[in-house]
Amino acid sequence: METISLKLDVFEGPLDLLLHLIQQLEIDIYDIPIAEVTEQYMNFIHAMKTLELEVAGEYLVMAATLMSIKSQMLLPKPELEFDCDDEEGEDPREALVQQLLEYRKYKYAASVLSEKEQERSLFYTKAPMDLSEYEDEILPLPKNQLNTIDLFLALHDVLQRKKRNKPIETTVTTETITVDQKVNEIGQRLAKLSESEGLPLESFFVQYTKDEMITTFMALLELMKKGQASATQEETYAPILIFKGAVV
């Protein structure tokens, strides 16, 4: 009858097994009781052999390492000929502790990456579409016309300048305004302008609170989307002006 050989794959390696024993015994990784850990480790090796399971060579190498460290710690320490309280012999466990610390660090990183992989598996992506057939339909912006990125950068510049120049107000206001209300307010101001008349972008900001600035910016974008407002700039770094209606 052919003998079936099985390999126990509970632990990923001898360092993984040692970390498990350290956690199970609730001991300090920086001060490992080698005798106790070696005994538990050898019990695991003997259990695998008893169950006729294949023992990987790396487990046997670690067993030999533990036995070597245990024997070194049992040897009497040589007496030093000079007195020095800070002078201590090299700890034979040091190299093993460093290996365990490095392994624990990479094991933690692997667990974090595994969690990220599971989170990412919940997302569904769509293959990119070929939009080359629509390239002819994309028209360039009219002269001095701004895109959304230009408008956003101009808004950021306005906010930075106002932070430096406007004193900090200590009053707390609870009144809020919606985007629709701001659209109507700005639309009414623009309706009073002539075709050639424009208002500076910063003139649409009153309180310079975070909510008011965001609402105003969204309202301007909504008006531009509807063709009821447009933003132009005569030259680079010049003030941005808001006109009524779309740019012709």
TrEMBL record:
Keyword Cytoplasm carried by entry: yes
Family: Belongs to the ScpA family.
Subcellular location, record wording: Cytoplasm
Main location: cytoplasm
Function, in words: Participates in chromosomal partition during cell division. May act via the formation of a condensin-like complex containing Smc and ScpB that pull DNA away from mid-cell into both cell halves.
Quaternary data: Component of a cohesin-like complex composed of ScpA, ScpB and the Smc homodimer, in which ScpA and ScpB bind to the head domain of Smc. The presence of the three proteins is required for the association of the complex with DNA.
Protein name: Segregation and condensation protein A
Keyword terms: Cell cycle, Cell division, Chromosome partition, Cytoplasm
Coiled-coil residue spans: none
UniProt KW Manganese keyword: no
